[in-house]
Amino acid sequence: MRITGCEILHCNAGWRDFSFLKLNTDENIIGIAEFNECYGSPGLSGVIRRLVDRIKDMDAIAHERIHQYLYAATRQAPGGVNQQAIAAIENALLDIKGKAFNVPVYDLLGGAIRQEIPVYWSHCGTYLIRPEIAELCGVEPLQTIDDLIKLGRRVSDSGYTGLKTNMITFDQDGKIGRHAPGFAAAPGWPDLNTPSDLVEQLRNQLMAMAEGAGPEVGLRLDLNFNCKPEGYRQITSGLDDLELSWIEIDLYDPVALASIRERIATPIASCESLFGVREFRPFFENASMDIAIIDIPWNGAWLGLKIAAMAEAYEINCAPHNFYGHLSSLMSAHFCTALPNFRVMEIDIDDVPWKDDILSWKPEIKSGCVQIPPGPGWGAQLNEDVIAAHPPKFVFD
């Protein structure tokens, strides 16, 4: 079975776009994958097309050979957009191989270890501080600290046993906002010095959400790229007594991250923005984190399994980075199903209503778990009529 070409599809999702690859073969078996061009990867669609041109007429079943070929072809500029393009191709090839062999992708990854996949409600409240996004999601916007209590109660009432939120703050006039200078989305960029009252504000946020959610729901806080090591130490030390499920930190210095981890009892999760075994290795060697976060749309499920295998040698469990559409959730679920050293799966709940119609599969969540995904391949098809009905607003290629 030979690769003949590809198609790229983009679908608006309110405040972002979802992007998809369709990889074609001469036996009319089409592999699909979700990738992420909207956040920080402009031009990714073009890179995917260029790389697919290089592998035309290659055996679609030989995904490892193709991955190694494309890595060699881009070796002088590894990671980044090149690796994201390789990952999209790899994920689509796994779908093709699963369909050709009539097995789910998780069987290609070693077979199912678990039938249910624990998930946590990600970006809890993060999107809802913006009224226009809350309206798209069909819920009331967050405005007060009492709204955070109600949101925590909503998570618990929905059956989830975990949530993750970002740094939600209130200014002197009581207006709600998000501390996100690392993305140039709030004051404090580019120096990233931590405001003196930030720890107190985060305590108020987390305690309000915990009050609503109750003791059965574990809380996670994502600090992203919004601090220097000094600020991360201040925040993590100041919140250590809250016994959070983890604090998530994006930091490219494994030694600095390890020094933060050594100072606190709260588990540290990190590495969602890393590519491949070479970038993850120093973080494992320096015992920089407790949970390794692996982005499957960025790395690919096959390479993700290699990274997880290396993590297991250091007694580290893994969790997928997954804040995209349902195809990404499906790909991540296959990965989690076969992963020995699995911790928990991320999933976004607040989203545009047509998200459920883009793919023929949507997450079925029972008692805080996604049920084992179907097959063969990823076990789903894109609804191109729905995608066409929602043209992209942010990605143009």
Structure description:
The chain has 397 residues and is α/β, with parallel strands linked by helices. It folds into two domains: 3-103, Enolase-like, N-terminal domain (Enolase-like, domain 1, 2-Layer Sandwich); 108-381, TIM Barrel. Helices cover 39% and strands 18% of the residues. The strands form four sheets. A six-stranded parallel sheet has the order 5-8-9-10-11-12. It has a four-stranded mixed sheet with strand order 13-4-15-14, with helices on one face. It has a three-stranded antiparallel sheet with strand order 1-2-3. Strand 2 and strand 3 form a beta hairpin. Helix 7 crosses helix 8 and helix 10 (276-285) runs parallel beside helix 12. The longest helix is centred in the first third of the chain and has 22 residues, at 80-101. The two termini are 29 Å apart.
CATH architecture of the largest domain: Alpha-Beta Barrel
Largest sheet: 6 strands, parallel
What series of H and E elements makes up the topology? EEEHHHHEHHEEEHEHEHEHEHHEHEHEEH
Q: Figure out the total of helices.
A: 15
Mean pLDDT: 97
Write out key terms for the chains shown:
single chain; TIM Barrel; Enolase-like, domain 1; 397 residues; four-stranded mixed β-sheet; 39% helix; 2 domains; 15 helices; alpha/beta; six-stranded parallel β-sheet
Blueprint (SSEs and pairs):
Layout: E1 3-12, E2 17-25, E3 31-35, H1 44-54, H2 63-73, H3 80-101, H4 105-108, E4 116-122, H5 131-137, H6 145-157, E5 162-165, E6 168-170, E7 176-178, H7 198-213, E8 218-222, H8 229-239, E9 246-248, H9 254-263, E10 268-270, H10 276-285, E11 291-295, H11 296-299, H12 301-313, E12 317-321, H13 326-338, E13 345-348, H14 355-358, E14 365-366, E15 369-371, H15 384-389
Parallel strand pairs: 4-13, 5-8, 8-9, 9-10, 10-11, 11-12
Antiparallel strand pairs: 1-2, 2-3, 4-15, 6-7, 14-15
